[in-house]
Design goal:
The protein is of the alpha/beta class. It has helices at about 35-50, 75-95, 105-110, 115, 135-140, 190-195, 200-215, 245-250, 255-265, 280-290, 305-310, 320-330, 350-365, 380-385, 390-415; strands at about 5-10, 15-20, 25-30, 55, 65-70, 100-105, 125, 145-150, 170-175, 175-180, 195-200, 220, 230, 250-255, 270-275, 295-300, 335-345, 370-375, 420-430, 435-440, 445-450, 460-465, 470-475. It is globular, with a radius of gyration of 23 Å. The chain binds S-adenosyl-L-homocysteine and FE3-S4 cluster.
């Protein structure tokens, strides 16, 4: 018999499900910043600690252990974490036995320095060292500070079944790769998350099966660079060429994995993120087209529309190659939605180069976008070799321009759904109205519609009558 129970809590009006293990008496408060991978890593950490007597809590004040899973991608992300540490410090005055640990990319980047800089921190653990948490906690309980930031060649946490945190019980993340080998000059990830490695497809399918059994309806396959997925028996992607001939010929790539998942779970929706244009290929696009249950949405960060900027960023494609990829996607999957990551003010970015970003946006007319001003990160190739010479005011002005253009394009794309019927997976109650459901269609567009007798997790057909630049508004048919 399972000793697990699911508790339901209300947070900002939304029902959130959390798995709790019976008999556990210690309380873990875990907070995540940054990417979806961090959210999923926190679920892995919660799973490892549930074997150590910890259940999660949403109340900071009652925690025995507070863990913050950090992000280093931009300076602002790190400042946010420093602010949170101040808050924990205030709580520690009331609850002096509470221990505080820092996980994730900042832990990896700053290592022991964290202990010197932030007196409140007892524990510093990098993304590949979460299995060592039980030992590290023992050190802490004996009054010593504990640090483990060793990056691994093998670790994929394949056998750890994540404890789903703050889950809507409908959609879940499944990690398939860790680390990144791309070395984009602006990016800290290869330094904080190490070299790229893929997870055994068998364990991926098992995890999805467990989610399916628990009535989840949608999974997102996660990786820094999912299209680069390659399983050849374990080990680093960069060592693939050194593997035996058999390992090389029986290797599983991303298109094959996607195909396997789609066939094995025909009733589940499948998403994936993030695709790097240099690794996205026609096989993946054809696989998406072949299966109804693979969502027609690709997050395809481009960073800049200018070939010269892309070159300085060490992105492995030109503007023209990216446009060709977009043309192919549109040809093979005409209804496919696309989103971008873009950055303004990278080292040496001229106004002409910025204009090329705007014109690329006009060409693609992305459905969604995630846009940032370039933030120099210590230790990256750009920080070492290039000058961060675009004034902040220019970065911000250009950022405002691309955000404005993206809003127009999002509206343009969403308007195309008006008068059409779309299939929505109900994820919960609309934030703005208790009388409305919210969910997403295959293209990842959020839709709201009046509640009837449906429930969370149902697939329903919704006729779209109107939209804003972020939301479709409709009624069930
Ligand atoms: N492949 C990754 C990209 C991670 S970083 C993924 O899984 O999403 C996410 C986005 O942050 C990048 O696409 C980029 O647009 C932005 N970013 C990365 N480094 C940055 C920096 N130094 N300054 C500003 N934005 C950055
Ligand atoms: Fe970063 Fe480029 Fe990898 S943005 S995560 S180095 S693909």
């Amino acid at each position: 018999m399972s000793s697990e129970k699911i508790i339901e809590e209300k947070k900002q009006g939304q029902a959130l499900l959390t798995q709790q293990k019976e008999g556990n008496t210690k309380k873990l408060y875990i907070e995540s910043y940054g990417c979806q991978m961090n959210l999923n890593d926190s679920e892995i950490v919660a799973s490892i600690l549930s074997e150590q007597g910890y259940n999660t809590t949403h109340l900071l004040e009652e925690a025995d252990l507070v863990l913050v899973n950090t992000c280093s991608i931009r300076e602002k992300a790190e400042q946010t974490v420093r602010k949170r540490l101040e808050k924990y410090n205030a709580i520690k005055k009331i609850n002096p036995t509470m221990k505080v640990g820092v996980l994730g990319c900042m832990a990896e980047r700053l290592k022991e320095k964290f202990l010197e800089e932030e007196k409140i921190v007892d524990l510093v653990v990098g993304p590949d060292a979460y299995r060592d948490l039980p030992n590290l906690l023992k050190e802490v309980s004996e009054g010593r500070d504990a640090v483990n930031v060793i990056l691994s060649k093998e670790e994929t946490y394949a056998d750890v079944s994540p404890v789903r945190l703050n889950s809507n019980g409908v959609s879940a993340f499944v990690s398939i790769t860790r680390g990144c080998d791309n070395m984009c000059t602006f990016c800290v990830v290869p330094f904080t998350r190490g070299r790229e490695r893929s997870r055994d497809p068998k364990s991926i399918l098992e995890e999805i099966k467990e989610l399916y059994t628990k009535n989840y309806k949608e999974i997102t396959l996660l990786g820094q660079n999912v299209d680069s997925y390659l399983w050849y028996g374990g080990g680093l992607k960069k060592d693939f060429k050194k593997a035996s001939e058999i390992a090389q010929t029986t290797a599983v790539d991303f298109a094959q994995l996607l195909n396997m998942v789609a066939i094995s779970f025909p009733k589940m929706r499948i998403r994936f993120s993030t695709s790097n244009p240099q690794d996205m290929n026609l096989n993946v696009i054809h696989t998406m087209a072949k299966h109804k249950n693979i969502c027609k949405y690709i997050h395809l960060p481009v960073q800049s529309g200018s070939t010269s900027v892309l070159k300085r960023m060490n992105r492995q494609h030109t503007r023209e190659e990216y446009m060709e990829l977009i043309d192919n996607i549109r040809k093979i999957i005409p209804e496919c939605a696309l989103s971008q990551d873009l950055m303004t003010g990278f080292c040496g970015e001229t106004n002409e180069e910025h204009q090329e970003t705007l014109s690329l946006m006009e060409y693609v007319k992305y459905d969604f976008g995630f846009m940032f001003a370039y933030s120099e990160r210590p230790g990256t190739p750009a920080a070492k070799k290039m000058e961060d010479n675009v004034p902040l005011s220019t970065k911000k002005k250009r950022l405002a321009e691309i955000i404005l253009l993206q809003q127009q394009h999002s509206l343009y794309r969403l308007k195309k759904f008006i008068g059409k019927t779309v299939e929505i997976l109900i994820e919960g109650t609309s934030k703005k109205s208790d009388n409305h459901w919210k969910g997403r269609n295959s293209q990842n567009a959020v839709a709201v519609f009046p509640k009837g007798n449906e429930k969370i997790g149902d697939f329903v057909n919704v006729y779209i009558e109107d939209c804003t630049s972020a939301t479709l508004i409709g009624k069930r048919i």
